[in-house]
Amino acid sequence: MKLQLSATVLDSPDARELADFYQQLLGWEAKSDDDDWVMLKAPDGGAALSFQTEPRYVRPVWPAGDGDHPMMMHLDIYVDDLDAAGAHALALGAELAEFQPQEGVRVYFDPAGHPFCLFRD
């Protein structure tokens, strides 16, 4: 029996808008692009990153407090230059999180509010 992770899928109020953000952030090409579903392929052949439109999408809160809709997952993205990668993310529409939990890692929110981390070794 073979099991292989094919893709991670992020819900969003607008799949194409969120896919455009990550396509520009990561430099990945679209493998499929429909109105409500976009898949970006990893250049190294690894698992893809996909986006689907969810009309009832609720933006997560991070860090979540009592009664908040918490994040269910986040993306960790390795970078060689934390400052340059952060400036790039901000220019594309990311937002720097107020709470930063550790040195060498910066937490941002994508345009749909999903947290993602840029980190270096």
TrEMBL record:
Annotated coiled-coil segments of the chain: none
GO molecular function (one): lyase activity
Keyword Cytoplasm belongs to the record: no
Organism (species): Arthrobacter pigmenti
Pfam families attached to this UniProt entry: Glyoxalase_6
Taxonomy, superkingdom: Bacteria
Name by which UniProt lists this protein: Catechol 2,3-dioxygenase-like lactoylglutathione lyase family enzyme
Alphabetized InterPro entries for the sequence: Glyas_Bleomycin-R_OHBP_Dase, Glyoxalase_6, VOC_core
Domain VOC as annotated: residue spans: 4-121
Keywords: Dioxygenase, Lyase, Oxidoreductase
CDD domains assigned: VOC
